Each structure stands twice: as structure tokens, then as C-alpha cells.
């Protein structure tokens, strides 16, 4: 399942997509949980009883701002979350 | 349309029809498994009874200012219609915005999974793309032939493109909400859409159009077009596959549905079941599956 967390507003589309099929048996040991400097990810059991990661509720409507520090303009060459997620389950839409 | 007293008898044009229904050709007492799905949404609440895996009864009503009471009232509406009590129920699953506040539910499941399951029941196993146009959010969902979610996207940051936005326009135009869709087609030329990114801007823009000489029908058409464009952009992000199904209250508004179909170039699937109960129906079907796997659970009194 592809779970898209985020929103679209007048300034653009801001979604973090998590491919839960790659996330279930995480080969990276859930490195995203500590890889994100703001701790935006958390473990959860989804509706089909699979253990996966999701974006915390309190960050879902502020992604454009909360992720800004990790974008190239914030001095990062690559996103810490997608770098930590070696199975390639996490993607940003912007 | 009803009138309620809040100091003055102000007509409530936004007030939509609440429904209670039961399949009178069947008797729930003959069923081996009776399960309940409760969907406490931000605007409406539903209770659905499923008997042996088939829809038996439902109640669809407005959500109050208290989720537990809304859940209880939704259930009470069905029990009054059918004579069924909580002791006759084998499992209750809560869903929707207030799913964790259903005091008598055994399990909470997200409305995304429940809408997919409900749409699969209502539209058959050919349903692949679901658009749920809820009271204060909008969801685009892909599912497989069993109704299992494969991709989803939700926009709950803004009321534009939701039922609440349509209620605002209904009140602004002073036209009952059920008449908005049909009246949106009664225009000589299809107008440009109003703002699709914010319901407050849309309202201001609608007022400006009225002052500029637009008829009410033309303003409604502009708003329906804006809502259609808004949700189509959401759908296009995950892609639209054949087997397109719309759930939620806005599915009853032909002014929006026809415009979505035109923009997508695809027809939405039809159903005889009230589209607004899809979430609660899915929850009740999940409960039925759990009863089959795990057996019945003791009722949780409220």
C-alpha cells in the first residue's frame, strides 16, 4: 500500500509517501525513526495488522515548513529520512 | 429544510436529510452474526447493522458536538427501528474522525480502509478508485478486488472540496442543499470555477459574483465546478483506474458528480445504497470478518 501523508494548498503539493510493502519487513531497522531530525515518523499497526511507519498526525499539515530545513535550501544534499530508509519506502513529492 | 430557534427563526438551508432504513424483508433474529459499524464523521454520523455479512439496517444523522453521544444516538436510531439491542450484537467497529470515541466499540479502524471495504460491497469487486467526499476532508483511495487499500491520499487541511464547503454555499445562496446540484445545470453558459483552494475565498468570490450580476444558479455552478476541479486534482495525484466509485454526502450532488465525470472522462459507478453510509458499512463488514475469524465478543455497555 502507498500511504500519502500531507496536503495540497495554494503554494503547492506536499506529500510524504510511504510504500508499506517495503516498510513491513524493514531492512534498515526503522532507521527513519531516528534519521528524521524532527522525529516526524512513528511505528503503527495499520488496518491490516501490519507493523509499518507513518508520519505523526501533528506534522501532516505542516510538511512544507517542517521539512524545509532538510531540503537543499537548508544545507542538506539529500533528505535524511530517504537516506536512512535504504529499502526506498519513503518519498517526498516536492 | 428545517427551522431552528437560535434567538430568531433562522432557516437552515444547509440541513440535509437524515435517514433511518431497515430491510423489512428480513428478520435479524434469524441471523447467526450481527455486527455494527459506527462512523462518527466531522459532519455526519452513521450506524450500520450487517446481518450475516449483508446490509440489514442503517441510520444516518448529523454529528453533534460530542462524539460518544453521536455514536450512541446513531445506534439508538437503528435500535428503535429494528428492536435490536446491544446484547444482540456480536461485534462493534468504530471508524471516522471520532472512531476512538465510540464508547461501545471493540475495535477502531480508519475510515480509509472502511470506505474501501464499503465501496467494494456497494459497487462490487470491480471498484478500484474511490473518492470519498466527506464533511471536512476528502480522500482518494485505490483498492484491490477484495476492497483492500493499495494507495490513498487524504486532504483534511482545508474545507474547500468538502461537504462543509457546500453547506456554506447553500446558506450563502439561501437555497436548500439538496437543490444545489440540479440548479447548477440551469445556466445558459457554464461559468469559470471560483477559488478551489479555500472555502473562505470561495465564499467571498461567490458574493462578488452575485454583486457582479451572476444569477444564483450560475454562482452555484461556479462553486460545483471549483469543487470538482479540487477533487480531480487530488485524484490525479494517485491516478484514476476504471471502476470509479464516489462515497460520502457529496456523491448525492449531481452538480459536482457530473462535473467530476466530465473532467475525468469516466463515469462513476451507480449504487442503490446510500453513498453516505460507506464508511460505517465497511466497519460493520470488518466486524463481520472478525467475528468469523475470532468469534463474538461480549458487548461493551454504555
What does this structure look like?
The complex is a heterodimer of chains A (94) and B (302). Chain A is α+β, with helices and mostly antiparallel strands and 94 residues long. In chain A, 18% of the residues lie in helices and 31% in strands. Chain A contains four helices and five strands, in the order ββααββααβ. Chain B is α/β, with parallel strands linked by helices. Helices cover 37% and strands 22% of the residues of chain B. Chain B has helices at residues 67-82, 111-123, 163-173, 177-184, 199-211, 216-238, 254-264, 278-294; strands spanning 2-5, 9-12, 19-22, 34-40, 44-51, 54-62, 91-95, 107-108, 129-133, 138-143, 149-155, 244-247. The two termini of chain B are 32 Å apart. Chain A binds chain B through residues 1-4, 7-10, 13, 15, 47-48, 61, 93, and chain B through 109-110, 112-113, 148-158, 197-198, 233-234, 237-238.
